[in-house]
Structure formats: structure tokens, C-alpha cells
Request: fold
Amino acid sequence: MASVQSHTTSLSEYPVRPLGQVRSRAAWIDQAETLIGLGALGLSIELVLFKFLPDLATAMIQNGRSALTDFGQFEREYLAPGSVHHARFLGNYILYSLAKLLATLYHSPDPRLHPLRVAAGILTPIYAYLGVLPAIRDRRSLAWRYFISLYAFIVLIGLYVFYPADMPALAFLSMALCFLLQGRLWPTLLLTLLTGLFRETSFHMVWFVAVWCWCDHSRTLRQRLIWLGTFILAFILEYIAVRQFFPGPISSAGGVILDPRELFLDRGVLSLTTICSVGLAALFPLACLVRIREISTSDWRRAFFGLNCYAFPAWIVFYRMMNGNLAEFRMLFPVLIPCVYGVAYAAAAGRRRALPIQSGT
Reply:
């Protein structure tokens, strides 16, 4: 009996922390983990750009010169009218202007430290952080750990090839999609137009709004159709204006590919890198479809994420029609980002459902 009393007394000596202190400690840990995750993403990007040097490897295989090692080469690829990259102008000019500024401050004979690469090393993490910002700010609706893990994965795999327009386009597309999921259409429209200054990725926002129009019945059909028409018109006008002042072909092939044999049986389509790239990308809609079952059927976002997953094969065909190199994982950023949001949203929904059970135990 004495031993039992002694044991009971020793248990009572453990301090009971007030609920406020527990929440404060949990919030501190959460913030610390956020900073660690962002730091890991930024440092990994720098490793890709300055250690793994994928652009140098690509240039060597193609018997060319990397655009991040020579101002003249960069100007010919990205600033000369007529290039497919010329119409994706804003990212090119931001990177070029920053590199020119850095060139006045230092010069290194090492091509790995060329001002263009240093500028890319500065801008790319900033763009990546902008894209992850919605998940950090809206932690109730989005499980940020799921989001940043998948988001960082696609970013790092996408850096297999570097283009100045990819990361800013992904960042602003991500932000626009987040506002759309919140039903905030004016900032969605603004960010869609901003995305279009970097790349035609804004076309995907027209598709996202069309899916939203189909799924979300909280507004009248007339209102939804007006918004859809607004996004379509905005995209068309911006597309025409950009190509008026920054001329470039509609695709690297100069047009649309319609020959089925070229679409599906071309040597590049059947390459190992293309098969692995598309196969890896296909896992994202599959994972999203499995996860979104945790979202209530009354929530329109469940259908929204599901339709985007089912559209994955159609986007693959579309990219091939535009002569897209599917071996470059970066090309699939716009198709995968709704899957990333879907997994993060579903994880947060499952967590919210579990909270009442935990508090009652």
C-alpha cells in the first residue's frame, strides 16, 4: 500500500501546464519547422544551380553554351525577337537586369559564378517562396507540411533544366489558385495577368476557373459565367498584346502538331527520360485522388481537385501538340500544382474532422 501511495505521489509531482502555454509552445515549434523547411528548399535550389549545374551538362550534350555562363548567349536565346522564349519576357528581363547590375560589382573567371547564375541563385528561391506563401498563411485550410514537401519536390525535379520564366510563373499560378480556392476572384484575376507576363501558364487559370464555374454553386450561374468570360477575355487580350510587343512563335515547332504518329510515336516521346518524367508526374494525380476522399462531398473543392486529376492525360496530349518536351519535368508544373493543393487541402480537412474526437478522449 505504501508503495502504491508513493507512486501516486510521484505522478502528482509532474507539472500541469496551462492550455495557453501548450498552444504557445506548439506555435513556436510550428514556426521553427516552417523556417527549417523553407531553409531546406532554398539551400537545395542553390545546390542545384551551383553544384549540380544541370544547364552546363545540357549544353555539353547539345554541343552548345549555357545561357547562364555568357551574356551574349542569354541575349540570343531570351531577348532576341522571334525566339519562343522572347514572349515570356518579364522573367528574362528581370534576370538579365539583375545580372548586369551584379557584373558591375564583381567578376569571376569561374563560369559557375557568372553573374547570370548568381542572379538565378538569388531570384529562384524568392520565386519559390512566393509560391509556398499561401500554404504558410492559410494553415487551417492547407496542411503546410504536405504542401511544402510536394511543392519542393516538383521545384527541385523541375530544375533539371533552367528557364527564367518557369519559377515565377509557377509562383504566381500557385498564388492565383489559392485565391480561387478561397473564392476571391479579383486577386485571382490580377495574379493570372501577372502570370501571363512571365509565361502562357495563365491559360491554365482559365481552365481552373472553368472547373470552379462547374463545381462551385455558391454563386449564380450568371455570375459564374461572367467571371469565366472575364478570364477568357483577359487571357486572349494579354496574349495578343504580349506577342505584339514581344513577338515569338506559338510553340517551339512554330505551330500545332496534329499528326498522331508524331504526337505519340516520336523518338523523344518514347525516350527513357520522358517515360520516367511523365510516370513520376502521373503519381501526383493518383495520390490526390486517393487523398481527396477525406474532403466532404458537400465541399465543391473535392470535385474541383478530382476533375483536375482526371484532366492529366488530356494535358499531356495538349503539351505534345504544342511540341512540348515532356522529358523536362518543369513543363508539368501547372498540371501538378492543383494536385499539391488537393493533397494539402484534404490532409487539413482530415485533421479538422479528427480534432473533436481527440478533444473528447
